[in-house]
Amino acid sequence: MSRKIEAPTVEILVIGNELLSGTTLDTNSHWLTKEVTQLGFIVKRKITIRDELDVISQTFKQMIGRRPGWIFSLGGLGPTFDDMTLRGLANALGRKMELNETAAKMLKERYRARSLLYGRKYARVTKASLKMATLPAGAIPLRNTRGSAPGVLIHHDGVRLISLPGVPREMKAIFREQVRPLLQSTPLRNERLERWLYVEGVTESRLAPKIDKTVKKYGERVYVKSHPFGFKKGKSVLKLQIIADSVNASGSKKLLDEVAERLTKSVSSLGGSAKWMKR
Amino acid sequence: MSRKIEAPTVEILVIGNELLSGTTLDTNSHWLTKEVTQLGFIVKRKITIRDELDVISQTFKQMIGRRPGWIFSLGGLGPTFDDMTLRGLANALGRKMELNETAAKMLKERYRARSLLYGRKYARVTKASLKMATLPAGAIPLRNTRGSAPGVLIHHDGVRLISLPGVPREMKAIFREQVRPLLQSTPLRNERLERWLYVEGVTESRLAPKIDKTVKKYGERVYVKSHPFGFKKGKSVLKLQIIADSVNASGSKKLLDEVAERLTKSVSSLGGSAKWMKR
Predict the structure, then answer these.
(1) Alpha carbons B11 and B267: distance in angstroms, whole number
(2) Is residue A157 part of a domain?
(3) Is residue B44 part of a domain?
(4) What residue in A sits closest to B146 (Cα-Cα)?
């Protein structure tokens, strides 16, 4: 149990002015974070930037330089002038943009289906729509069953880059249908378990040194976070979140039990009480 | 109207493991983004990282290096071991951490008030609680009327750094009571106006080149984003968001009107229709 867990790491790049003006609440990256965490990956960093080509390309470069296992980008794959994620990515990788035949075929199929429903006017593949099939050289398009712009997968120097559209239903569909199976087939993942303790009668400040000591003892395998909930019936209320990481579930469960026992004793020694809670 | 708008720029650093595991949806930074945008500031970038001292300090350093007008950090000001925002900031600035007398006084007042309500046990200022009054040298504490950890303001090389706690009610109270008046007293701000056009009968791809041309004509002063809403009654539906920036409201309104007229003509020329919409 003493070996360090090298769980696969993820960075997320969120692109779009609307996310930096308070117009749109970014629930996309929250959803993605939850999904990949549940699959045993660890999101190390999330960066939100505007639709500016230089900034996109520099940020991709810096992300690749930190060498996470996976980089996800969200947004900026559409046909309009401000959709510039893939150009930024191509610049960062030193690759050319080129029409991807597979992606073009996906687009044409999608437009044909649309024209059957809504009329021939909608079958036209315009220059602006072909932009969505113009990808960095060597990219693998990921079929979008809910919209036009395909997702994109690129392998680069051991880092896997996945670009998904910003429209939530499209992003989720591509993730579920194409990306999740890929992540599930990754051999080394983290088995993370989480439990919560409900603590009464001890303030966060007084418990802090005890938590500190416990976490230091277990190193990177255990994470404890205290969430203060003010006072109820004259008693300080805290919820303690305990997260344990191990390469298998039984290891994580053993860690959780040990840490919960230690913390329950600490709480008692300070005159409070602790019990498991559902959440 | 041709001079470039140099609106004050903002970067936001969000700190906390819980925001990178899908546990907590980050509504704090969304709220802050909306507030500062409405006050005429432009959020250029938002970065979310884990509670890791080196990462915090490196990220602060990089942010300061980009020289925005303001840097906000959210989270990591509490008493526990994983609250390390201020240590990370002090490292980034090359300043020492020291007990701030004003902050210590704020804490003691807060604890005294708490003990009047809940008993003497809660009046004790422990070592862990004094951590919340230990700030980078030269920092100005910002009173927290809803919790223990004060906010922090630091002037450094022309950049203003503001650290706020992660608990939403505390973050919002400090912003409203202490930070907003500060931002409002900044002389040069941006007067941004926004309106929406409802467009029927033209797809995003076909309209894209026209939008592109309009936006290029107006440069940084105008931003147009098309939001596709699928098909209704056999017609493609788009909502066009037009944002205009100017140093005064009448300039922004004039821009909005001009751009809307151009786009309405473009839509007509493609066989569709456009009208103002409320939103």
Answers:
(1) 36
(2) yes
(3) yes
(4) A230
Q: With a CB-CB cutoff of 8 Å, which residues 142-181 of chain A face chain B? A: 148, 167
Tell me which long-range contacts B271-276 makes (C-beta under 8 A, separation of at least 24).
Answer: B271/B201, B271/B202, B272/B199, B272/B200, B272/B201, B272/B202, B272/B207, B272/B236, B273/B199, B273/B200, B273/B201, B274/B197, B274/B198, B274/B199, B274/B200, B274/B240, B275/B197, B275/B198, B276/B195, B276/B196, B276/B197, B276/B198
Chain A residues lying within 8 Å of B26, measured CB to CB: 26, 30
pLDDT at A190: 74
> Does position A2 have pLDDT exceeding 50, yes or no?
no
Q: What is the CATH number of the domain that holds B58?
A: 3.40.980.10
Confidence of residue A279 (pLDDT cuts 50, 70, 90): low
pLDDT digits (tens, 9 = 90+) for B57-114: 999 999 999 999 999 999 999 988 889 999 999 999 999 999 999 999 999 998 888 8
Assembly ipTM: 0.76
Which residue of B206, B215, B236 is in closest CB contact with A128? B206
Q: Tell me: do A85 and A178 sit in the same domain.
A: yes
CA distance B10 to B36: 8
pLDDT at B131 over 80: yes
Structure confidence by residue, pLDDT tens digits, B174-222: 999 999 999 988 876 777 788 999 999 999 989 998 998 888 888 778 8
Verify whether the Cβ–Cβ distance A33 to B22 is below 8 Å.
yes
B109 touches chain A (CB under 8 A): no
> Which of A250-259, B12-21, B122-131 has the least mean pLDDT?
B122-131
B40 lies in the same domain as B87: yes
Domain that holds residue A197: 191-277
Same domain, A133 and A102: yes
The residue of B12, B13, B15, B21 whose CB has the most chain A CBs within 10 angstroms, and thus the best one to mutate to test that interface, is: B21
Asked if B38 reaches chain A (Cβ–Cβ under 8 Å), the answer is: yes
Same domain, B103 and B120: yes
**What is the tally of structural domains in chain A?**
2
Would A3 be classed as within a structural domain?
A: no
Point out which residues pair with A274 in neighbouring strands: A199
Residue B80, chain A, CB below 8 Å: the answer is yes
Task: Please give the torsion angle defined by the CA atoms of residues B61, B66, B68 and B73, in that order, rounded to the nearest 10 degrees.
Answer: -30
Listed in order, strand segments (DSSP E) in B201-262 are: 222-232, 235-246
- Rounded alpha-carbon distances, angstroms, from residue B114 to A231, A273, B104: 10, 21, 15
- Same-domain status, B221 and B180: no
Q: What is the CATH number of the domain that holds A198?
A: 3.30.70.1130
Same domain, B214 and B230: yes
Are residues A200 and A159 part of one domain? no
CB contact under 8 A, B22 and A31: yes
Given A184, A214, A243, the domain boundary residue is A184
Q: Are residues A100 and A67 both part of a single domain?
A: yes
Average pLDDT of every residue of chain A: 90
Min Cα distance A1 → chain B (Å) is 23
Last residue of a domain, one of B157, B184, B211: B184
Q: What is the pLDDT of residues A34-47, one digit of tens each?
A: 999 988 898 999 99
